[in-house]
Amino acid sequence: MNTxxxxxxxxxxxxxxxxxxxxxxxxxxxxxxxxxxxAALRATAQLLLVGLILKFVFGSSSPWLVLAxxxxxxxxxxxxxxxxxxxxxxxxxxxGVGAAATAVSMVLVLSYTxxxxxxxxxxxxxxxxxxxxxxxxxxxxxxxxxSLNVFNTGLERERNAIEAQLALGADRRxxxxxxQRNALRSGLIPIVNQMSAAxxxxxxxxxxxxxxxxxEPYEAAKYQILVLFLLAAAAGIGALAATTLAVRRxxxxxxxxxLDRLS
Amino acid sequence: MLELKGxxxxxxxxxxxTVEAGECVSLSGRSGSGKSIILRAVADLDPHDGEVYLxxxxxSSMPAPQWRRMVTYVAAESGWWEQTVRQHxxxxxxxxxxxxxxxxxxxxxxxxxxxxxxGERQRLALLRALGLNSKVLLLDEPTSALDHHSVLLVExxxxxxxxQGVAILLVTHDSEQALRLATRHMRLxxxxxxxxxxxALAGPEAGMEEEGQ
Lengths: 263, 213
Fold this sequence. Notes:
The complex is a heterodimer of chains A (263) and B (213). Chain A has 263 residues and is mostly helical. In chain A, 76% of the residues lie in helices and 0% in strands. Chain A folds into 2 domains: 1-59, no CATH class; 63-261, no CATH class. Chain A has 9 helices and no strands. Chain B has a single domain (2-76, 135-212), classed as P-loop containing nucleotide triphosphate hydrolases (Rossmann fold, 3-Layer(aba) Sandwich), CATH 3.40.50. In chain B, the strands form 2 sheets. Chain B has a 6-stranded mixed β-sheet, with helices on both faces. A 4-stranded antiparallel β-sheet of chain B has the order 2-1-4-5.
């Protein structure tokens, strides 16, 4: 079967549902009617714009353009990670730790995928790599964002526990191990839940999309499985890189806890 | 022998001080005068200027963890990072022998740290640090949460260590404790260290300070 293309009228009918929703909110005084409308319009504008940009990128045959798009996406993800931190490192490290971890994880997972699993021609084929970057980035963002948050707030809360270990002669890695472990665990819980629930409680968005777009469900499932594996790896590598960098930045080469570097 | 030379941190210093092996020097001063800052700087737990020597060797010439195993700081309220007491001690620790030294029940070794009283935790933290057999102890209010009987047990244990040659720098608000343990007394006033004799330490001003804490 070929999926029928959507017309603007189709979208308008869809939008009617949002309007209805919003009207209900006004009537019942829920107070989200306005934000609902704004969010719906924002999503519309953002997605149409992205659609246009991707159409252009897909049409061109420049690897540089593809790389530029990936770079912008990564920077946006790094910004998102930063704004999710309640406590962050001062100066350039505030965004740097999250950004570096995001980039490292993404490059590793993506090269692994492109080289060993999906042999696309050329390797930078935008139809493949850009959606892949998007979905992997989402997972990295979660892994990095959550684990950094747990780590950085823990630094202050667990100050006595960390300094007690340092005073007893532990080096910085040993003294922060328990905190890093907690942070990694928290960073990985979402992907564990996502994998456990996949197909039973939720039908993952990507698989749904591919089925709607006409792909054989069994083949779509295989794709989804691969993507879940990639997401797990991405979240894990991202969280590990972020907390490892954070351990170094939260301490100095004399193995002191440096809370003055956190704000 | 522990030597502080030109030690500076924040509004404190420069501080010069020598503590001989087997000697205890007390350090008093108002709350917030920076007594803990000095102890922490000596243990190299905070960035500071100046140098500290242990038997002629400088702190900066060796890795900080190695220094801290010889020059060990025990905070007034030390931290815990595992669930039970036992996990904070070396695996071959004999709790039957260790804990009664400070009047603690050996059975608390398997209790959750969170469920212990402040005084129990304070004594455990001291025992934990003593296990390192450091040459210098930097003690920050080591008996602030203890009853009189436990205080005497702690002091007896510390005196035992001093007899073995351990040097102690003792921060305490308890001037009587300072008189019992230390042979020299220092007061931190406006960032500078000044020697103070035993009578002045036991005098009315010191007494007032104690009430104020």
